[in-house]
């Protein structure tokens, strides 16, 4: 980790389903203490009543309202927030704003837990959903960013747990026992901090994956 990184960007945190920005309380304080400017917003509604594409528009609007056009960002999405963030990046122009992108326990390939609800956002997070198939059809675009998917093999919200991994970018395992602990465990915080502190790589380079 190079703490003299001259490309330190503001960090935007995107929460998961049934959460609010308060879920990042510990992570936000941890990053601020180490010199980052940290931002977050509350996605409304947060319970899956609207599609993740609609929530992504809230992210896009927040970015436009909060940052000057030339400001580059680092984006961290937890659980559903990682998929919302991907839609913003892949479909709403975020690819031109975001430099580092981290997802934490996000259902990139769906979770069977989403079969427990017929809300639109939950249907989109089911395995093999039309929404995820479309988003994954050009996931290679994430290779233009410094992209990292962080996951735990013990996740009971993302089932199967390896749905949180992506074939593009870097994969990092943080073996915590519970889904929400991914935002508070010291190992997770260390991985997020180290990843955000790395120098920006040149776009479109082949990135080695690690587990």
Topology:
Elements: E1 11-14, H1 25-33, E2 38-40, H2 52-66, E3 73-78, H3 80-91, E4 98-104, H4 120-124, H5 130-137, E5 146-151, E6 170-173, H6 186-197
Parallel strand pairs: 1-2, 1-3, 3-4, 4-5, 5-6
Helix pairs in contact: 2-3
What features would you describe in this structure?
By secondary structure, the chain is an alpha/beta fold. The protein has helices at residues 25-33, 52-66, 80-91, 120-124, 130-137, 186-197, and strands at residues 11-14, 38-40, 73-78, 98-104, 146-151, 170-173. The protein has a 6-stranded parallel β-sheet, sandwiched between helices. Helix 3 (80-91) links the parallel strand 3 (73-78) and strand 4. Helix 2 crosses helix 3. The two termini are 17 Å apart. Mean pLDDT is 93; it is low at 1-5 and 204-211.
